[in-house]
Amino acid sequence: MEAPREKILQKVNEWLARADEDLQLAAYGLTMRARVPPYRLIAYHAQQCAEKCLKAFLVYHNVEFPYTHNIRKLLALCADLADWTAALEDAQELTVYAMTARYPGEDLVVTDEEARRTVNVAERVRTRVRAALPELNL
After folding, report:
1. Which stretches of the chain score pLDDT less than 50?
2. With pLDDT > 70 as the criterion, what percentage of the chain qualifies?
3. Which of 81, 76, 77, 90 is nearest to 122 (CA)?
4. CA–CA distance from 85 to each of 3, 70, 99 (Å)?
5. Contact by Cβ (8 Å): 70, 47
6. What domain range includes position 78?
7. Considering the entire predicted model, what is its pTM?
8. Environment class of 9 (CB within 10 Å of its CB; exposed 0-12, middle 13-18, buried 19+)
9. What's the CATH number where 29 sits?
10. How many helices (H) and strands (E) does the chain have?
């Protein structure tokens, strides 16, 4: 029985590692010395961080989730297992950034302030999820 749990923990760690990379890239983007940093991409990677953290939490609890970038849907799935989802309600705002960096015609102008807010929200999601997964020694 130990092997399946180890595989789940490995998968959770993989989700979290990718989330960390997204957050690292988003935070780095805010420090770029470009005339106008790529705020759209910063917001996208912040959204990806939050999404992957929530999916890691669901994997940890063996909850299947749909193929979605919708943070509201992922938070709703997490709400059955956690009391912290209401505190992250504003993370739902990140969903819109999942598409804007990917597809032409879906462009959304993202300001410096909005980009910074997305990184802040992603950091809060990351912190909450990691605190809820003490077994991983994070």
Report:
1. 1-2
2. 94
3. 90
4. 30, 14, 23
5. no
6. 2-136
7. 0.92
8. middle
9. 1.20.120.330
10. 5, 0
